[in-house]
Here is the input.
Amino acid sequence: MGELIHWKEPTGILILPSGEIHVWRAKLDCHPSVVRLLSGELSRDEWCRASNFYLEKDRSRFIVCRGILRRILALYLRAQPDQLKFDNGQYGKPTLACPNQDIKFNLSHSKGLALYAVCVKRDIGVDLESIREITNATRIAKQVFTLKQQQEYFSEKGMERIKAFFRIWTQIESYVKAVGSGLAEFLDNQDVLTMHPLNNGRNIYNYEECFTFSTSIDMNYMTSICVHNSDCYPLKFQWFEANCLCRDSIKEQRCFHFGK
Here is the structure.
């Protein structure tokens, strides 16, 4: 089900062609000096959101998550992180307000880990969940999963059923985020939505004009990445470590380029 992922630090000049997805991984529990550094690059709105967290740990994770997002996007756009401006969609999905709409991204975080997915021109969604037992999984599956997804879920037992739950859940969440809708809209239309496997396993699907890829991140996390209106299957994925971007100056980083 999961594919072997080789995480690497970016070196040299990276090209982001239209058929490629760059996925960045960041650990959010960082040294206070990193938190201070990244906090200086946030907007006033992000500062207000950070201040709403009661626990210092959660506040620091939010700052690191948003700060690293800014540093990742700044590399592609050849901009300073604090210059980036964001808009939020109807359901809270962030998008770039400027300087370039060709870059599409999405992010998700769970228990101290964040994933960022970046591509060109295609709307994208990513969901990350820590793999764990939840007491109401069966009820959620019956209420939210399509009939085919329920069959997949209930065909498994033990730990494989737990993994199946989060594989399917992240597929739904990444799809909802890619198309910019809400879970309620998905539930209203799930009877007419079909998910067709594109390989012999259960990790690559064509889902209503979307390409959806699922994999485990080590033994503790499950993620799905959904690309809307993808006409270039199979997509190529590159997997990068993001914490190396937390240097004193973004100018120390090498330039990235994206394709048209």
